[in-house]
Design goal:
The protein is mainly alpha-helical and 332 residues long. The protein has one domain (24-331): Farnesyl Diphosphate Synthase (Orthogonal Bundle). It contains 15 helices and no strands. Helix 6 runs antiparallel to helix 7 (134-151) and helix 10 (198-216) packs antiparallel against helix 13 (236-262). Residues 1-17 and 297-301 have low confidence and may be disordered.
């Protein structure tokens, strides 16, 4: 457990959210805590799972069930992100960017945030129960437990080297994917037939690489408050290079999904028809922003640069996924 710095102690015991804000600003604070941009991760993982359910497991899919399941997972994560803001607001006061978040800025009180978090999580489980899907409920419970270990003391995995990566960028993507798969595929079907491995690796590669790049934006802050996170403990160049390679492997994995479709159609690998290549078009528009970071990572050290890249990644992910879903449900 990292020791608190003198500055951190001062924030913990003396600082309180203050400020005069309009009702609109306060309401927007609640929306901001939900982090709707982050929904793209759940949307991507669950959409890939939907395609595997249809093409590999040969089970029918439903847009209505998918949308309901997606909002169940998305609202769970909105509640968990709000919980993270609640547990971290005092530390966030020391962060150049995070101090502008709703709680440290004073737009939302800590108790309001905690209450809002509980409400969102309850709505998430309510939707899952309405779908009468025990496997979806199980996935929600695993993600809830994992995020609690990630953010809350005495565990606080986000402050522990290695554990922050495992908890924040490996466990969660897998169960986002499984939540989408179990909307249509039963547990018995996954145990008695081939389980496509490549889609799981793809979501792991993309989101672990993206997570590592995002965490680099807090490297200085983590050191300032003596957090022993992976970003604070390892050299920045090493993390950036590893992240770039991992993301590249993600794209290679996507390519192999298409190659497997026109060659062996091995169900253990996973495959999708070639016309889904149209879903990759939005990536072309993201290249100008991403190219500078990938070519000259030494210039991409400012937190604002990492934030910009992260936003582009989420926007691109959302666009790609919407195209995937449109193609699938129009054709089938």
């Amino acid at each position: 457990m990292p020791k608190k710095s003198k500055n951190q102690k001062k924030v913990s015991f003396e600082s309180k959210p203050t400020g005069n804000f309009s009702l609109g600003e306060r309401l927007y604070g609640f929306w901001e805590m939900m982090r709707p941009m982050e929904w793209s991760k759940s949307l991507l993982n669950m959409s890939i799972a939907l395609l595997m359910a249809f093409y590999v497991y040969n089970v029918p899919t439903s847009l209505g069930i998918f949308v309901a399941g997606f909002f169940s997972v998305a609202l769970l994560w909105s509640g968990l992100y709000t919980l993270n803001d609640f547990t971290d607001w005092k530390i966030d006061l020391l962060h150049a960017t995070k101090k502008k978040r709703p709680i440290p800025s004073g737009r939302v009180t800590p108790m309001q945030a905690l209450t809002f978090s509980v409400i969102l999580i309850l709505i998430s489980f309510f939707i899952a129960f309405l779908l009468n899907n025990a496997l979806l409920v199980g996935c929600l419970l695993v993600m809830l437990l994992n995020q609690w270990l990630y953010t809350s003391r005495p565990f606080r995995f986000k402050e522990r080297k290695g554990l922050d990566m495992i908890s924040g960028s490996m466990i969660n993507p897998i169960f986002r994917y499984l939540a989408g798969l179990f909307l249509f595929v039963t547990l018995a079907e996954t145990l008695t037939s081939a389980f496509p491995v490549l889609p799981v690796l793809i979501v792991l590669f993309f989101q672990s690489g993206g997570y590592a790049l995002y965490r680099l934006s807090s490297k200085g802050h983590d050191k300032k408050v003596n957090m022993k996170s992976t970003a604070a403990s390892l050299p920045q160049k090493l993390i950036k290079k590893a992240s770039h390679w991992v993301i590249a492997f993600g794209f290679i994995g996507v390519l192999f999904l298409f190659i497997n479709n026109i060659t062996f159609q091995n169900p253990w690998v996973g495959y999708v028809p070639l016309y889904f290549l149209a879903g990759m078009i939005p990536i072309i528009f993201a290249i100008p922003t991403m190219r500078g970071v990938l070519r000259t990572p030494a210039k991409a050290t400012a937190p604002s640069t990492y934030s910009k890249v992260y936003c582009v990644m989420h926007a691109t992910t959302t666009a790609v996924t919407i195209v995937f879903l449109a193609i699938h449900f129009v054709l089938h």
